[in-house]
Amino acid sequence: MTVRFAASDTIGAFQRPEVTQRNVIARISDAINEAPLAMPPGVTCRADRIRTFAVYRFAMPWDVAESSIRRDGPQGLILTIRRRDRSSQSITQAPPQESTGSDGVPSHRKQWDLDVIVLDPGHGGIDGGAEGVNGALEKNIVLAIGKRLRDLIKQHLPGTRVVMTRDDDRFIELYRRGQIANEAGGKLFISIHCNSMPTKPHPARGAETYILRPGRNADAARVAARENASVRFERSQDRYKGLDNDQLIVATMAQRSFVRLSELFADAMQREVTKTTPLTDRGVSQAGFFVLVGASMPNILFETAFLSNPADAAYISSEAGQIATATGMLQAIKRYARTYRSLLQK
Ligand SMILES: [Zn+2]
Q1: How many angstroms separate the alpha carbon of residue 301 from the centre of ligand 1?
Q2: pLDDT for 296-312, tens place per residue?
Q3: For 227, how many CA atoms within 13 A lie in the half-sphere containing its CB?
Q4: What's the CA-to-centroid distance between 46 and ligand 1, angstroms?
């Protein structure tokens, strides 16, 4: 079926629709009007508006094979949702890949396979991120770790494609990072950062992983505020206005189809990185990170180590520390892939 979105003004960004079994989620920014969409019988659509974009959730009476979105003039978009044809269930599936396995998983569920992983080294260019007690900049450290991890994935998971939101020293706007991930059809989004305290040197140390949820404690809110501060380098900060706690709840709801997988991966990150490195385990927390809001796939933000702590800063700035951290992240990806395959088989 097709649905046409008509706006009263030029439509800005839109994301690749997210498909889970019988549901399709489309996110469209800017000028979408509020008029109810005409739905065929049996199809329901719920729309939630967040200041700068609208989230449309379609529930279909049948399994969805694929969904795509294209422009139809400057003020229109056409969303196509294709029904799965039972006689050709493999129509949209990638060829079976050794690394992600194809063992006995019903083909209509293979859409969850980890064929594309998106790595997002934070900051870049004019945005240096946190500065270490040793003078090292977060943007350089996270890029180095991202490249190491990319190479490790290529080597150890040859069937998985790696997309990086940046692979050089450039600034990428926060909303754009999620868009890159969605356009690439990412199945996992990993934003890589370094932690820091406002006063340096500081005894706080260790690795922690965040999932997107309205913050509940001051510590997590501080980390989110520091990472979200990257928007000060962006041309238009309006798109994040109003993305306060209430609207984050809506944004988090838009991710509920994969929040469980985000939690699983966050848990794997903490377990594995604290095995391959001497970094202490600070656990999994939740907070409202702008960079995670738009990613239509399981996603986490990883704070490798504290640049405000002398031992952490020295470790994470070193080649050995970066290799060990990337190795732990690779192990986390493998652990996650195993877990979710076993979930699919249930
Ligand atoms: Zn950062």
Answers
A1: 9
A2: 899 999 999 999 999 99
A3: 26
A4: 34
Q: Tokens at residue 157, please?
A: 């998971």
User: Tens digit of pLDDT for each residue in 212-236?
Assistant: 987 667 888 889 889 999 988 988 7
Q: What is the CA radius of gyration of the chain?
A: 20
Q: Which contiguous run of DSSP H or E holds residue 47? A: strand 44-50
State how far the Cα of 170 lies from the Cα of 250, in Å rounded to an integer.
Answer: 31
122 Cα to the center of ligand 1, angstroms: 5
Domains recognised in the chain with CATH numbers: 2-88 (no CATH), 112-345 (3.40.630.40)
Q: How far is the CA of 321 from the centre of ligand 1 (A)?
A: 18
Instruction: Tell me the one-letter amino acid at 230.
Output: S
The CA distance from 252 to 98, in Å, is: 33
Around ion ligand 1, which residues have CB less than 5 A away? 122, 129, 193, 227
Say what the pTM is.
Answer: 0.70
Question: In this structure, how many other beta carbons lie within 10 angstroms of the beta carbon of residue 177?
Answer: 24
Percent of the chain with pLDDT strictly greater than 90: 48
Start-to-end CA span in the chain (Å): 31
158 vs 115: CA distance, rounded Å: 10
209 CA from centroid of ligand 1 (Å): 12
* Alpha carbon of residue 14 to chain centroid: 16
Confidence band (pLDDT; 50, 70, 90) for 86? Answer: low
Minimal CA–CA distance to 15: which of 65, 64, 60, 52? 52
Q: Is the pLDDT of residue 257 over 80?
A: no
Residue whose structure tokens are 């928007």? 231
Structure confidence at residue 280 as a pLDDT band (50, 70, 90): very high
CB distance 55 to 254 below 8 Å: yes
* 50 CA to centre of ligand 1 in angstroms: 24
CA distances to 19, 85, 132, 175 from 26, in Å: 9, 22, 40, 15
Pairing of strands 2-14, 23-32: antiparallel
